[in-house]
Specification:
elongated; single chain; mainly alpha; 2 helices
Length: about 60
């Protein structure tokens, strides 16, 4: 859980912006944009567990 919290603390505004763009696409364009939400969750979890350690700190390069 700590990698997820670490990523969220560092990049919450980016994920909210992307989610907002997807929500706007669903509302104004087509419901096909709903496919983006599970993909967004998968990207978030991927980056959380690849880039952050078990304590929620960014891994060194």
């Amino acid at each position: 859980m700590n990698p997820i919290v670490g990523l969220w603390k560092d990049t919450w505004y980016v994920w909210l912006l992307i989610g907002g763009v997807l929500a706007a696409g669903v509302y104004w364009v087509t419901a096909m944009f709903l496919v983006g939400f599970p993909a967004l969750l998968a990207y978030f979890l991927y980056f959380a567990f690849i880039r952050y350690d078990q304590h929620g700190n960014k891994k060194s390069a």
